[in-house]
Design brief:
The protein is an alpha+beta fold. The protein has one domain: 60s Ribosomal Protein L30, Chain: A. Helices cover 30% and strands 25% of the residues. The chain is built from 4 helices and 9 strands, in the order αβββββαβαβββα. A 5-stranded mixed β-sheet has the order 2-5-4-6-7. The protein is globular, with a radius of gyration of 16 Å.
């Protein structure tokens, strides 16, 4: 195992997680905290979550978004379909900056999700992965670490005060529940928080 792979394996470890105060970030949500007791949690299929932390101020947050329709329109820099994703990313980054040091150079950004967990959502997952990479590159940010793509759903837990991330790949039954929620959103072409009824930890 190379050094980078070892670092990644250690980061996404199954070591004990302090769950004193777990806050769920549902579809369309964005939460920012500095409280060391807080753990942010979400479940992802085709959706994306970014975990952004100010490494100096110890403030961090998580979002959760789905690009619910695809379009070739060029009405803005990313196209009509990416407007929600751009809003979700800007909302999170700006919130962390305003509550932290205010310096972009202090931000550590990690991204997760975009899985191909159902043939009907394949294009959405791929579009989400492409979007978040291009958005961050365009804004001048590097991705510190990532767990994107694949053919499984994930639960992601993030400690905003320390920056630690825990990722658990979910079984097929849990994945089916995520698929149902995301397909409903994709058909409606709107973003609304689904009920998070998956608790596997």
């Amino acid at each position: 195992m190379g050094a980078s792979a070892l670092k990644r394996a250690n980061e996404y470890s199954s070591s004990p997680l302090d769950r004193e105060k777990v806050i769920t970030v549902n579809q369309g949500g964005c939460e920012v905290f500095s409280d060391e007791r807080v753990t942010l949690s979400t479940v992802l299929g085709s959706c994306i979550s970014a975990c952004v932390r100010d490494s100096v101020a110890g403030v961090g947050g998580m979002n959760h978004f789905l690009l619910a329709e695809q379009s070739g329109a060029a009405k803005d820099r990313f196209g009509a379909s990416a407007r929600y994703g751009a809003f979700a990313m800007e909302q999170l980054i700006n919130s962390v900056l305003s509550q932290g040091s205010g310096r972009k150079g202090n931000l550590v950004i990690k991204v997760f999700g975009g899985g191909n967990i159902n043939a009907s959502l394949n294009d959405i997952g791929a579009a989400n992965v492409n979007f978040v990479r291009q958005f961050l590159k365009g804004e001048g940010y590097e991705i510190a670490s990532q767990d994107l793509g694949g053919n499984f759903a994930r639960r992601v837990m993030f400690k905003p005060s320390s920056g630690r991330v825990f990722v658990k790949r979910l079984d097929s039954d849990a994945g089916k529940s995520v698929v149902r929620e995301e397909m409903a959103l994709a058909r409606k072409k709107v973003v609304a928080p689904p009920v998070d009824d998956i608790e596997l930890f």
